Amino acid sequence: MGARPKLLITRRIFPEVLERLDANFDIVSNQADDEWSAADLLARVADRDALFVVASDRVDRALLDAAPKLRVVSTGSVGYNHIDLAACKARGIAVGNTPEVLTEATADMAWTLLMAAARRVSESERWLRDGQWKRWAFDQFLGADLFRSTLGIIGMGRIGSAVARRARGFEMTVLYSNRSRAANEAEVGAQYVERDELLARADHVVLVLPYSQATHHTIGERELSLMKPTATLVNIARGGIVDDAALARALKAGRIAAAGLDVYENEPALNPELLDAPGVVLTPHIGSATRSSRVGMAMLAADNLIAFFEGRPMPAQVPLG
Ligand code: DGY
User: Fold this and answer.
1) Do both 28 and 89 map to the same domain?
2) Same-domain status, 195 and 60
3) CA 28 – CA 25 distance, rounded (Å)
4) Would the pLDDT of 119 be above 80?
């Protein structure tokens, strides 16, 4: 038997996934989940043939330069904006990701954030825990209706479609905007409109589009000013799609009512203005965090690596253009 390919895994992964990889690779793994500096990572990747990363690892030219033997990068995420695809292509390095397995869990989380933000769940719970609940009042914590309201979805891919399907139960009008018309718009019951029209008409706006330079600050000052003062904004997509500073200003000025955020511009650092903005529900990038979804992601990332070295098509290979 020839030497097994050398694999670096940057994060703790589930034992069953590690076991599967262990049968195929010579592994260095960060099972202790230590904070590796950029220099640590560069040193560890030097002799590796394969790399298993997550969305918060940057796979840039500096890292690729430090990894002359690298042949494949597998990310345990559907998003791949943290990977320099052009640099991978130039070096003949294949890239794999994890679509499908997280679609439903992430759509559930979009709804979790939407409902929690629209109905002021975090805000009222903080108030209650603070001992401020002395009596019931008609006008306490009035939120926005979901039933028969208008939902605007920006980005109608797999997750956007799954969000739209769930809106049927709420008898919502569903608008969407996307780079192109979605072939499944009738099936998911969504109507295509231009983005500005969506922002003006929707009671609730959910962002589910991939991050790229083209989608940077899709929602900024101008877009927020088009939204209804009673509107809710949910970002389940990627930090950077929303201008966090502009959003905090809009919430504080009452230009929109609420926001449910799972992703941030400089995560894990948060814009401090978001922390004391009213009507905001904040979660730490847990959109796909159910056991079945996260194990599915890690297993698919492992399967991509195994298929690559067995000379089979990777189950989920990112096109490098
Ligand atoms: C993804 O898969 O891209 C999620 O954001 C988790 O990183």
Assistant:
1) yes
2) no
3) 9
4) yes
**Residue of 185, 197, 221, 267 with catalytic role:** 267
Q: Is residue 275 within 8 Å of 281, Cβ to Cβ?
A: no
Domain with 115 in it: 103-282
- Mean pLDDT taken over the chain: 97
Residues 179-226: pLDDT tens digits?
A: 999 999 999 999 999 999 999 999 999 999 999 999 999 999 999 999
| Longest CA–CA separation in the chain, Å | 74
Cα-to-centroid distance, 168 and ligand 1 (Å): 26
**pLDDT tens string 47-83:** 999 999 999 999 999 999 999 999 999 999 999 999 9
Give 156 Cα–ligand 1 centroid separation in angstroms. Answer: 17
Percent over 90 (pLDDT), the chain: 98
Phi, psi of 167 (to 5 degrees): -70, -20
**Are 199 and 258 in the same domain?**
yes
The total of structural domains in the chain comes to 2
Structural domain contains residue 321: no
Q: Average pLDDT, stretch 89-118? A: 98
Query: Would you call 187 a catalytic residue per the annotation?
Result: no
59, 102, 159, best to mutate for ligand 1 pocket (most atoms within 8 Å of CB) = 102
Q: What is the CATH number of the domain that holds 176?
A: 3.40.50.720
Say how far apart CA 181 and CA 279 lie, in whole Å: 33
269 in the same domain as 122: yes
